[in-house]
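User: Here's a protein and a ligand (beta-D-galactopyranose). What would the complex look like?
Assistant: Let me lay out the input and then the predicted complex.
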Amino acid sequence: MKVLTTLKASVAVLALTAAGAHAQGVEVLHWWTSGGEAAALNVLKGDLETQGIGWTDMPVAGGGGSDAMTVLRARVTAGDPPTAVQMLGFSIQDWAGEGALANLNDLAAEQGWDAVVPAALQGFSKHDGNWVSAPVNVHSTNWVWANTAIMAELGIEQPTSWEEFVAAMEAAEAAGYVALAHGGQAWQDATIFDSIAMGVGGPEFYQAAFIDLDPEALGGAQMVEAFQRMETLRGFVDDNFSGRDWNLASAMVANGEALFQIMGDWAKGEFINAGQTAGVEFQCFRVPGSEGTVTFNSDQFAMFNVTDEAAMASQQTMASSVMSPEFQVAFNTVKGSVPARTDISDEAFDACGKLGMAQLAEASASGTLFGSMAHGHANPPAVQNAMYDVITAHFNGEFDAETAAAEMVTAVELAQ
Ligand code: GAL
């Protein structure tokens, strides 16, 4: 009898908590503000809505999330953390190290996350063995997005070497097109540099320079060559590149104004949002030289420690939704990314999505999958920002290639 009363009481508490949670909902801090990103975010909002979870939007524009992370710090310092935050790699680890993140172990155990989330992602989702964030996707950053009609008009085949890549851009420029659509913002410069460095030095160099932070690699001949290639690319951007948002650069390719954009596969979200189809109006291929490797980042939702029980319940519901196989398909087919679970069929994905999934699996199996430096998955934010500064200063002509490589060594040393 007593057991029954206790049971009834806990059922009542649970029901109350659930009702409260629905009223409370989640406040989500994120940087998904472009057309494609917003479309993907709506998939998540809609999913939570069907479960009665309200959504308070806290968007902080700025690709790559640096500005969002500044706002987050201010919110937490003021004692008012958002319930859920879009976050990347090492930032998750930093916040978990500060004890700011909620523990998702029970949910993870119940839903068997350990068995389906790839090890490379778990390294960021877990801190001290505890689940602290729910991965939404895997993006890869070493892609070229190309306008099919311009390629056809100029007889350009998919380039398979740096030389062919440069020749294609020369042809586009000669025909009056913008050869390389780019936005001059530090994180975009770094996104290009990521792939170019991989293309020059391959996996061993990438590991040594960006992950092990080996001064010899940071300041060596391959780093100099990577900066020289950046100078070549700088010659192919248009006069108005400075400060341009990445999605506007994607639009230049979509509109037939520009031949190529080097960007992570969130760019695909923009093409899709403009009604275009992979392999038809636009093409995707790996940055020449980086074929066989994948530099990745994974957007995750970290749940911040909150005291309100209803908010805590909403966090669990949100994390559970994010990890469901149905959501992973619905969201990632719109976002341009691929699922953060290994047990999902590629059937619903377009040509670039299928390619991305296959290449991710291959790279993971062959040891050529690396966390992206530009997107917070190779080294901690302080080091990443130090690298951003040098890469951008060089791109804007402040340093020559040799000086830039030397500056990488100094900047990284000071940041550690
Ligand atoms: C990345 C993020 C992507 C995409 C991109 C541009 O850091 O992982 O989801 O949003 O920034 O905003």
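Summary: The chain has a mean pLDDT of 94.
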